[in-house]
């Protein structure tokens, strides 16, 4: 008889049982270590982040800042392999996809209709995923902040088994004086995916954030930034499954802890601040 495959919720409950005794013994608040919890679900929480930094001046002078910001967020709640700077080569990307086996691949760099780029040995752009090796995205979700690739590489990757490809179908723009407003919109897709939401939810969150930023810059008279953000919003494209997910939803893992707290079997827990900022469902559960 085939062995039963445990659900995420069942695995979460097992983890709680292992933690319950020492918590009761020490009788003190317990800090939830998200990385410790999520590492127990390696297939569903591995994130490969690709972000080279080419010789200045270059777009990657700015994109690397967006990538670092995402890494700071994701690394506290998932297992992230960060191929940064000269580590972001085609050989390393293919190696980590095979060995690290990420469910989510996130990319910040240049793109073209049929490729996304990384680093070469001489600090110049090199295609790390293109139509020749797009099959390596099989059963994975790709979220890229790069120009054009969703127009060609996205459909090709999905035809070769990629669950979902989210990127831009034309040139996207950043205004150097307000570039963080763009990253704050563009990273919503993969931030939501790390939190356990679907690709469509992440896509919708990005559109909502774009709209809010467009309205803000228009209201202060910065129509140049507003117009370019509008173009970026309209070029963001989702190809493939709208329901694909990459990580177990936090609520499934938190709920067993919450039930133990509610029934006074363990002391109240100390929750990471980003939970309250980014996952409203958890706030509702605690209330």
Topology:
Elements: H1 8-26, E1 30-31, H2 34-38, H3 42-45, E2 46-51, H4 60-74, E3 79-84, H5 90-99, E4 104-108, E5 111-112, E6 115-119, E7 125-130, E8 141-145, H6 153-159, E9 164-168, H7 179-186, H8 188-194, H9 199-219, H10 223-235, E10 236-240, H11 250-262, E11 269-270, H12 273-278, H13 280-286
Helix pairs in contact: 1-11, 4-7, 7-9, 8-9, 9-10, 11-13
In short:
The chain is an alpha/beta fold and 287 residues long. Helix content is 47%, strand content 17%.
What would your notes on this structure say?
The radius of gyration is 20 Å and the shape is globular. The strands form 3 sheets. It has a 6-stranded mixed sheet, with helices on both faces. A 3-stranded antiparallel sheet has the order 5-6-7, with helices on one face. It has a two-stranded parallel sheet with strand order 1-11. With 287 residues, the chain is of the alpha/beta class. Helices cover 47% and strands 17% of the residues. It has a domain at 45-240: 3-Layer(aba) Sandwich (Rossmann fold), CATH 3.40.50. β5 (111-112) and β6 (115-119) form a beta hairpin.
Would you count the extended β strands for me?
A: 11
Please compute the radius of gyration using only Cα atoms: 20 Å
Task: Give the count of helical stretches.
Answer: 13
What is the share of helical residues?
40-55%
The CATH class of the domain at 45-240 is Alpha Beta
**CATH-defined architecture of the domain at 45-240:** 3-Layer(aba) Sandwich
State the strand order across the main sheet.
Answer: 3-2-4-8-9-10
Query: How would you sum up the global shape?
Result: globular
> Biggest sheet, open or closed, and with what strands and sense?
6 strands, mixed
Separation, N- and C-terminal Cα atoms: 43 Å
Q: What class would the helix/strand composition place it in? A: alpha/beta
Order of helices and strands: HEHHEHEHEEEEEHEHHHHEHEHH
The residue ranges in which pLDDT falls below 50 over 5 or more consecutive positions are: 19-30, 38-44, 270-287
Mean pLDDT: 79
Q: Please indicate the percent range of residues in DSSP E strands (runs of 2 or more).
A: 15-25%
- Characterize the quaternary organization of these chains: single chain
What is the CATH topology classification name of the domain at 45-240?
A: Rossmann fold
């Amino acid at each position: 008889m085939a062995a039963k495959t445990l659900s995420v919720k069942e695995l979460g409950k097992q983890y709680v049982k292992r933690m319950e005794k020492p918590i009761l013994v020490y009788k003190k608040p317990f800090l939830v270590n998200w990385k410790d919890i999520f590492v127990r679900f390696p297939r569903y929480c591995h994130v490969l982040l690709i972000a080279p930094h080419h010789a200045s001046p270059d777009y990657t002078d700015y994109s690397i800042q967006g990538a670092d910001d995402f890494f700071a967020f994701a690394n506290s709640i998932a297992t992230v392999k960060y191929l940064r700077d000269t580590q972001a080569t085609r050989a390393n990307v293919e190696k980590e996809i095979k060995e690290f086996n990420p469910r989510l691949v996130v990319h910040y760099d240049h793109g073209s209709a049929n490729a996304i780029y990384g680093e070469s040995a001489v600090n110049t752009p090199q295609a790390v995923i293109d139509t020749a090796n797009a099959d390596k995205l099989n059963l994975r979700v790709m979220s890229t902040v790069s120009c054009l690739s969703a127009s060609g590489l996205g459909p090709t990757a999905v035809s070769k088994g990629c669950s979902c490809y989210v990127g831009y179908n034309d040139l996207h723009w950043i205004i150097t004086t307000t570039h963080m407003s763009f990253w704050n919109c563009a990273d919503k897709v993969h931030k939501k995916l790390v939190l356990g939401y679907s690709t469509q939810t992440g896509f919708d969150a990005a559109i909502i954030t774009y709209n809010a930023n467009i309205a803000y810059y228009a209201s202060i008279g910065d129509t140049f930034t507003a117009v370019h953000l509008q173009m970026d919003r309209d070029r963001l494209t989702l190809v493939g499954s709208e329901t694909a997910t990459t990580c177990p939803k936090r609520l499934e893992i938190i709920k067993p802890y919450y039930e133990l707290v509610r029934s006074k079997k363990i002391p109240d827990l100390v929750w990471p601040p980003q939970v309250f900022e980014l996952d409203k469902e958890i706030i509702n559960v605690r209330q």
